[in-house]
Amino acid sequence: MKKKILVTGAGGFIGHHLTKYLVEKGYWVRGVDIKHPEFEQTSANEFLILDLRKWESCLEATKAIDEVYALAADMGGMGFISCHHSEILYNNSLINLHTIEAARQNKVKKYLFTSSACVYPEYKQTSIDVAPLKEEDAYPAAPQDAYGWEKLVSERLCLHYKEDYKFETKIVRFHNIFGPKGTWDGGREKAPAALCRKIATAKLTGNSEIELWGDGKQTRSFCYIDDCVTGLYKIMESNYSQPLNLGQDRLISINELADLISNIANIKITKKHIPGPQGVRGRNSDNSLLKEILKWEPEISLEKGLEITYKWIEEQVRSKLTVKS
Ligand code: NAD
After folding, report:
1. What's the distance, CA 125 to chain centroid?
2. Which tens digits make up the pLDDT trace of 59-69?
3. How far is the CA of 127 from the centre of ligand 1 (A)?
């Protein structure tokens, strides 16, 4: 019989891509979210609209399921998570507390929780040439935002469920996942999508000035969505239960990222640096443990991933501008 998988947050960016990947691999997939995917029909065998903050919804979502990929979260880019602390902490705590307990009561066999590089302490990320973050660097704990604190507590929840109930849990810490068919405007978009949108708008309107938050020297690493779903699957299939980074380890500044995208768009841009939330000064993933455990690491280049993402976002911007004119 086919294994039955639940993907929570299947109406969102990573959940939608993961659902497609798992269905293509031959699994039966139930997607759950408070909304349908925005840019493409879901591939899920069953898609339920449920609010996972509610206990009864979590019981329904996890019923007759073998494995759970827990991705549902109230989240967004820096612009969103730096100023919605209470909502994020309240909503995500309820989602994660209820989903894992319902999964346990429904005798789910494996449970994978998607955490974030935002769990890492601010004091280790104060310079642009930051040392890559190893999993153990998360302690002593000092995440920057409520979003990071909640992720860290939910990681602890998974570790305790494993210890106390022998429930097989896994924990992934994503480092800036990007790709097509994700939020690209409206306030929840993350840096790569926002930059693609700004540069596509500059190209299509002829106004070459684009605004960047801060001096643009802040650094990050960015991982393409196809590597992300491959990594998620490999982690679920592994025997490893401690937190594991999943990201690229190529450090790049936001200014350089904008230059890469403008090269792909084939336009010259003028950067205007304005005040705005920037997050930590520098952040990179140390992939030593990932490589050791999975014998694999993300392999799609930033250039390749950005090319695909930019093309898709340019199409979205073009249709929006056409509707307006
Ligand atoms: P996303 O916002 O596109 O997807 C999250 C989904 O969760 C959304 O579709 C949303 O509607 C759904 N959701 C929110 N509240 C819900 C509720 N009460 N009940 C049911 N569904 C609900 O985000 P994403 O980028 O796909 O992220 C997926 C997961 O990975 C999240 O847990 C996020 O915190 C984590 N993560 C993502 C990144 C990244 O770079 N994208 C980085 C670190 C961690």
Report:
1. 19
2. 999 999 999 99
3. 28
* Catalytic site positions: 147
Residues 174-214: tens digit of each pLDDT: 999 999 999 999 988 999 999 999 999 999 999 999 999 99
Identify which of 56, 75, 99, 170 to mutate to test ligand 1's pocket (most ligand atoms within 8 A of the CB).
75
Taking a C-beta distance cutoff of 8 angstroms, is the pair 132, 284 a contact? yes
Residues whose CB falls within 8 Å of the CB of residue 123, separated by 6 or more in sequence, listed in order: 142
**Closest to 316 measured CA to CA, from 160, 167, 215, 189:** 189
Mean pLDDT on 278-293: 96
Q: By alpha-carbon position, which residue is closest to atom 43 of ligand 1?
A: 116
- On whether the CB atoms of residues 202 and 210 are closer than 8 A, the answer is yes
22/183 Cα distance (integer angstroms): 22
pTM recorded for the entire structure: 0.97
8 Å CB contact between 296 and 250: no
Which domains, from first to last, does the chain contain? Answer: 4-177+222-246 (3.40.50.720), 181-220+250-286+300-319 (3.90.25.10)
Check whether 12 has a pLDDT greater than 90.
Answer: yes
Q: How far apart are the first and last CA of the chain?
A: 53
Torsion (CA) 311, 316, 319, 323 in degrees, nearest 10: -160
Cα atoms found within 13 Å of the Cα of residue 87, Cβ hemisphere only: 9
**Mean pLDDT, to the nearest integer, of 1-23?**
97
